[in-house]
Amino acid sequence: MNISVSKKHFLRINTWDDIYKMSGYTDSLDPKKEKLKQVINKYELPNKGKCGLSNCRTPHNIGCIVETESGRLTNLGNDCGKKYFGENFTSLSNKLSKEIDYSNKIENIKLAKLNIAENYRKLNEIEADWKRIESVYRAIKSEGLDGLYDKLEQMKHSKSSIIAIQRRATKPEIELEEVRTGKDVQNPFYISDNLGDLKGLNYLTNRTKIKTIILNNKIALERLNNFDEDKTTLKELSKMIKENEKLNDSVREAHCIITDGFKLFSADNMRQFTPLISSKRHRKLRRFLNCCFES
Ligand SMILES: [Zn+2]
């Protein structure tokens, strides 16, 4: 697209006064006496104002500012534009829409570029946190707490955060079960006691995403850094904006995963497994809990 408006500044219209104060503005333009020169701005306002055509004056809140050959400016709705200035209005209005879109996209990229350093900082922070969490995760195995490791794997696959322990039912519990079901229970009969609810279990499902997120985003930031928004096509601009939105979304996602990781490997959360670990290994467990995060 051959638009040399990348440096053109579109004044944002926020109130009707912004329009009335424009130099050359008239609130009573006679369309029969004027020839349309250009559509110069668009607005969408919260309250209604009158159409600037002397034969219309219908209140509306979405419209555009037009300039006529005589140098006068007024505001009108799209219906009036088409009705009084015909095809010429439609094509000038479409041209302006494209220019505004193009200019907004360039602004968007310029803003994204200002955030590059901050995004690098965020990625490095995510990477450092991820490494800390992973080293705690590895400590489970290096401390020889394989039972705990397997339990976490099992909970990850079942997607259940309930920490439970199985034990033989007591005599009254067996009797209660027989009354409840109206049948003799099979011996031995086991009951599952809930020990607690594990926080942050999703970390285990999502932990491998972090590496990809960091890698992809560093590539995306470098591409953004090298991108020349003043010498490009609308299509390339749109692509770069989408990529940047994806980057922001995935940084948010990575933050959620990291938060889960800190919750999962907090000492209080992991301590809930103590009754499931044989007392022989409690010294190892204490050493592991010391590696864990403060809650
Ligand atoms: Zn009108």
Structure explained in plain terms:
The chain is α+β, with helices and mostly antiparallel strands. The chain folds into three domains: 16-100, no CATH class; 115-161 and 198-291, no CATH class; 169-197, no CATH class. The protein has nine helices and five strands; from the N terminus they run αβββαααβαβαααα. The strands form two sheets. A three-stranded antiparallel beta sheet has the order 1-2-3, covered by helices on one side. The protein has a two-stranded antiparallel sheet with strand order 4-5. α2 (78-114) crosses α7 and α3 packs parallel to α7 (234-264). The longest helix is centred in the first third of the chain and has 37 residues, at 78-114. The radius of gyration is 33 Å and the shape is elongated. The structure holds zinc ion. Zinc ion is lined by residues 51, 53, 56, 58, 76-77, 80.
Can you give me a brief rundown of this structure?
The protein has 295 residues and is an alpha+beta fold.
End-to-end Cα distance: 56 Å
Query: Measured on Cα atoms, how large is the radius of gyration?
Result: 33 Å
Could you say which structural class the secondary elements and strand pairing correspond to? alpha+beta
Mean pLDDT comes to 93
Topology, number of strands: 5
What topology does this entry show?
Blueprint: H1 16-20, E1 36-50, E2 59-68, E3 73-76, H2 78-114, H3 116-142, H4 146-158, E4 162-168, H5 171-181, E5 190-197, H6 202-226, H7 234-264, H8 267-271, H9 282-291
Antiparallel strand pairs: 1-2, 2-3, 4-5
Bound molecules: zinc ion.
List the defining traits of the structure above.
9 helices, 295 residues, alpha+beta, two-stranded antiparallel sheet, three-stranded antiparallel beta sheet, binds zinc ion, single chain, 3 domains, elongated
